[in-house]
Amino acid sequence: MAVTRMDNVGIVVADLDAAIRFFAELGLTLEGRMPIEGEWAGRVTGVRGQRVEIAMMRTPDGHGRLELSRFIAPALASDHRTAPVNSLGYLRVMFTVDDIDDTVARLGRLGATVVDSVVDYQDIYRLCYIRGPEGILIGLAQQLGERGSRQDPMEQSR
User: What global pTM score does this model have?
Assistant: First the structure.
């Protein structure tokens, strides 16, 4: 049996309200917010006694979701928010946007910063990484012209 879809990507945050505002400004829609706790939840995650508040954010196309989680208990085990892009493990989520300059400006008003610069990739995409609230790393890609509609930048570079 093959995977039928990717349901969501999870990001743990300290300030759930700020993360919701950030991703809403990016264009995602809050689907719901709720507490998660109980013996069943600890059996799924391996973190017994967990109490978590989650918010599910949906992408405009309706196919992708981000699950933002704020742990109330137990205390956070580690912090990877400032890890550089060549670190092992989860790194970032990349979003396609209509206008990268406008998106960077709007997210900048919420404290986001471009990691280095916005670059032009072979006249196919404009790309950048930004750090949002709490150092969350995301990628932004703006398609340029017809060539960009056929391939994503990661496939083309292989």
Answer: 0.82
